[in-house]
Amino acid sequence: MPEFKIQHITKYSYDGFVRDSANKIILYPITDVYQEVLKHDLIITGHPQVDTYIDYYGNQVGSFTYTERHNSLIINSQVSVITHPKPLPLDNIFSYDQWTDLFNLRHTVPYIDFLKQEYFEGLSELRPIVEQERKTDDTPYHVALHFTKYVYRNFEYIKGVTTVESTLDDVWKLRAGVCQDFAHVLMVMLRYVGIPARYVSGYICPNKNGMRGEGATHAWAEAYLPGYGWLGIDPTNNCIANENHVRLAVGRNFSDCSPVKGVYKGTAGHTLEVSVSVGYDDSPIQEEKDIFTISSASKPATSVPRNSYARYVEMMQQQQQQQQ
């Protein structure tokens, strides 16, 4: 029954003074029998009033507008949460019966949303891989684990190779990305075989075991299993998401779960910086520090950043085309 203290700082720095910053935030950890929020402090520049509501997917969402002129905006979320381990599936129902149950869910709310595929040109290339990874007598549980292992082994975890605007096809061509990319690829595989899959945003708190995804918000997937419910699976670390994963929100994809979205009036140039730190048990929440740059709107954005890995992949693709 670990207790985690998490500080999540989002900082916008603008090229000049702006006003009327309207923001939507999904920074409220999910509360259920497996996750207990002890305390949550939300400190925002200018101390605007935050109105909250529950969205279609059951997430608590906050909205606020900071009307005064400002050249920076900081959203500092500090939360203390206790997590409880969720029992693993017993998987004692015949495989055929489980697949039949899933087939019967294809037109049922809310599973329709989590079975619909996003546009993905690479699906024709992924299809034979999915069929190969899926064994004939496997239950949905074991199929989900096989797919998780495939993504973990066949995609490189490289920070900065993709952005939040990168498409599934960008990730598929690069065979690289970060946690949100891994989750999206896994969900395509699960949905293709009829397993409802949803995106989860949150934090990974591995007690300093060096797992991928530390120091920032994390993302993974959940697969719906007959007779069990939603099972969290983390393809970034090839593990089941359990008591070391703190859940913020669920949805169809990243767009449904983005921790912070906003618009403002004023100059277009701005820089977004994010920092996440995790304390354990009775350790204090760290002071604001080590904020690192995520993106800059003053520079033209591309769907795939031009870092060395992306340039290498592009060069190899060009060479292959020339040889054909």
Automatic annotation (TrEMBL):
InterPro entries: Bac_transglu_N (IPR013589), Papain-like_cys_pep_sf (IPR038765), Transglutaminase-like (IPR002931). It comes from the Bacteria. SUPFAM superfamilies: Cysteine proteinases. Residues 171-237 form the Transglutaminase-like domain. This is Transglutaminase domain-containing protein.
